[in-house]
Write a structure and sequence with these properties.
Blueprint (H helix, E strand, L loop, with lengths): L11 H23 L2 H9 L8 H25 L6 H22 L8 H28 L20 H17 L6 H26 L1 H9 L9
């Protein structure tokens, strides 16, 4: 059975499908945070939703928009492997948790912005940096002809094999914290478990097959996911 990391499929169609679906999800987030989304859902399902705090709504949407732009840059300019159709649909499904579920949970009551939110934004920026800058440095390294077919272990990847995934967990955690709803913390917890128990083992198997002894040596001296810890 082919895995996510060795499927051959068209380059553009899955990416354009993913872009379309995520754009729709982003629009739903805007509808919830700035228009009558909360009132409509309350009328239909009798959910206990408010209009939220306008400042918090804007902060959440700006952070979500930053995620959207970062991920589209990664998808269209940095991600060179083929994208299977299953990813074109599974990724938007996952991102609906970040773009829709977290904003919904933030609308369960009005919580004005406070000093803690600045700390949450710092976590968001740090996680985004770990994810996007790590990918950018790896992309730049792989553009050099002498590095073709070689395993990249520099930059942020010196600190963990999947430092980019750790960055993902951090920025999702920051979004959940900005929502100021304890239930929102289940979203980064789910993402951590997804990476730790599904995606990372699958990717490690692919890397071991592709890079052989180079990857085994790298794995022996480098943490898998969380720097200095795991």
């Amino acid at each position: 059975m082919k895995t996510l990391y060795n499927q051959n499929t068209g380059y553009w169609y899955p990416r354009l499908t993913l872009l379309t679906l995520e754009t729709i999800i982003l629009g739903v987030a805007g509808w919830l945070l700035f228009f009558d989304g909360a009132e409509v859902l309350h009328a239909l399902f009798h959910w206990n939703l408010s209009n939220g705090d306008s400042g918090r709504n804007w902060l959440l949407f700006i952070l979500i928009l930053i995620v959207f732009v970062r991920m589209k840059f990664t998808m269209f300019f940095l991600l060179r492997r083929p994208m299977p159709w299953q990813e074109a649909f599974s990724v938007p499904a996952a991102f609906s948790l970040y773009y829709i579920v977290i904003p919904l949970l933030s609308l369960t009551y009005n919580k004005p912005l406070n000093g803690w939110d600045l700390a949450f934004v710092v976590i968001f920026v740090f996680g985004s940096l770990l994810n996007s800058h790590a990918e950018w440095l790896r992309h730049q390294w792989k553009q050099l002809p002498e590095h073709k077919g070689k395993l990249y272990t520099g930059g942020y990847f010196r600190y963990s094999i999947h430092i980019n995934y750790f960055g993902d967990v951090l920025w999702v955690l920051a979004l959940a914290l900005v929502a100021w709803n304890a239930w929102a913390l289940l979203v980064p917890l789910w993402l951590f478990c997804f990476f730790a128990f599904y995606n990372i083992p699958m990717l490690d198997k692919h890397l071991a097959e592709k890079y052989g002894d180079d990857f085994e040596r790298y794995r022996k001296k480098t943490k898998t996911f969380i720097p200095y810890f795991y």
